[in-house]
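From the methods appendix. Each design record in this collection lists the tokenized structure first, followed by the designed amino acid sequence. Records were kept in a plain field format so they could be parsed without special tools. The example shown here is representative of the layout used throughout.

RECORD:
FOLD TOKENS (92 positions):
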């Protein structure tokens, strides 16, 4: 998958004896488009609109005050064993 800036964003190599999963390619394109719009990361298995994956991770480079403006519905922060508060979820 190549983005509009002509950067390679995804390569997948399958052995010739293995079938291709085009649904995965479409899932990755959806994830890349969402990440470009909203500075988020999607978990493995995430698909647009699925209730089980209704939240995505906010990228660590997004500051807390900017996150509140970007996601007015709220940012959920998890306390990590290290005391860090860098795991943040938002609804896309």
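DESIGN:
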């Amino acid at each position: 998958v190549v983005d509009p800036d002509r950067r390679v964003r995804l390569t997948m190599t399958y052995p010739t004896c293995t079938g291709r999963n085009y649904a995965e390619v479409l899932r990755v394109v959806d994830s890349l488009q969402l990440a470009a719009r909203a500075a988020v990361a999607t978990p493995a298995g995430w698909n647009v609109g699925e209730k089980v994956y209704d939240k995505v991770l906010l990228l660590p480079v997004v500051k807390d005050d900017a996150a509140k403006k970007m996601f007015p519905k709220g940012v959920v922060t998890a306390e990590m064993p290290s005391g860090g508060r860098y795991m943040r979820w938002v609804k896309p």
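APPENDIX NOTE: The mean pLDDT is 87.
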